[in-house]
Amino acid sequence: MNRRIAIVGIGNTDFNSMTPDVSWKELMFEACQKAYIDAGVDPRKDVDSFITCAEDFYEGFSIFDEFVPDQIGATLRPCCTVCGDGIYGLGNAFMQIKTGQMDVVSVEAHSKISDLLTFGDVVLHAYDPLFEKPVSGPVERQNYVGSPSYPKEKPKPIVGSSNEKNRIHPYFLAGLEMQHYLKKTGTTEEQCAQVVVKNKKNAFNTPYADYEANISVEDVMNSEYLFKPVKRLDISPNVDGCIAFVLADEKTAKKLDVEPIWLKGFGWCSETPWLSTRKMNADYAKMASDMAYKMAGITNPKKEINIAEVDDRFSYKELQHLEALGLADSGKAGKLLEDGELDISGSLPTNTSGGSLGVGNCFEATGLQKSLEIVTQLRGHAGKKQLSDVDIGIAQSWRGIPSGSGAVAIFGR
Amino acid sequence: MTFLEKQTDPTSPMHWRGNMQADYLYLSGVAGDKFFKHLMKNDTFLATKCPECNKVFFPPRLYCEDCFCEIPEEKWFEVPSKGSIKLFTIATIDSYGKKLKEPKVIGLINIDQTDGSLLGVIKTDKPDEELQGVHVEAVLKPKDKREGTLKDILYFKKK
Fold first, then answer.
1. Pairs of residues, one from chain A and one from chain B, whose beta carbons lie less than 8 Å apart
2. ipTM value > 0.85
3. Which chain A residues have a beta carbon less than 8 Å from that of B94?
4. What is the pLDDT at residue A152?
5. Which domains does chain A have, with CATH numbers?
6. How does A183-217 read in b/e, with b if 16+ C-beta sit within 10 Å?
């Protein structure tokens, strides 16, 4: 089955620090409805398969995939959830269409993180419970006396309990990794601060962004250290929002009244989960991009890629990822930034959407937010920030603290 | 979408406040069991060495993540509960984003004679000092108080 696969519909909600006006299901309905209208398809008749991307603990549901068919038009249809970022969803949609079993597949990812009242503790739960998580502090423990496995007569001792109350915020790992990146490459904290300034400025031209701001490098440098060298403004703030894509095979795409944007390549990779042996060089991004470049037939990414949206959930991550993707030489991404090459007017416009620093951290929707910007630019619909001569773009996402996993997608006109 | 009027007060919408009672037992496993039982009786750590590539795992594992081979019994050995600080950070907020009473220095400590590292709290009088490369030792609970968890390591301090 050698058929090309296109993005034929995109839809997104506004992104906001909180969305008390709608439930998470209504948020999904809004983005999906927009994507189906954009593609000109009826989900009840024309979409053959539906993919959502979510993480049970962020959602607050067990077996999250059971909760999705109704609000995306998928009841009594093939539907599944990928436990990962939206770009993993795009890859799965691509493969489903390649089988010939499906012609049109939708992919959805969202964040309704404002519903989660214990965000820090849920992320701490992603550290190894025996060898890593305990460093954050005590675990609140229930008294299990009376539960079947803890007989009343002889309650088992509460292992690991202490009088301390505070657990350290899980983002401390970014402090360790940023220190590693700065020392290894000679990149400076000021250069990282400049990423924040650039992305928040870019976000002014992204209508759905929530954290656009006109700030200076000094403002970022003067924000307090939370996990030295990570400062408050180096961290992308959490937002709610939803994005949906519709993908179709070439034949179907050409029948729709929309300019197809081709999904030319994708890749994904996971490093060891053990912090004890992980190298912290974003090798997951390197391996994922190697796979995607090969598939897309890209041999010289620096020359062939016109626009990049890379994961910038911490400021240093943008520079680290550009180097891992081979778009900058090792340790040279900061220099590219200083020279203005990563600006909208530069040779490698990066995070023209504002990235996660400007739009907000939308968790599993991050990869789709990056892809949304690339597809919008390739369609020529990016408004004031529209680039001229843009043919190939790359979107890259990381699964966030404390993971060493990520995915890459390459789009072309 | 027919949401023409939007809510702006986050507390006014109807909602249900729920929580997941999600508590687990995480078994130490064969390798963890051996490691923690040793730590209860000794002031040293255990590590394992891959028979094919000689990578030394700390915390010890029963298999090599590079070669995907088993690590046999004879490849277990004792290492000192010491190491050098590979990376460190100073954490100032708790998991709810509130300021910690005292900032905590967290280090990734490369344990001596191994290729592995361990996250640990570092006690130091001068939190702002450069700690990279500094040699530290684990301060352990008194033997009669140890429980066989990572909490038996109280913190790391400069030697």
1. 136
2. yes
3. 120, 137, 166-169
4. 55
5. 5-115+236-412 (3.40.47.10)
6. eebebebebbbbbbbbbbbbbebbebbbbbbeeeb
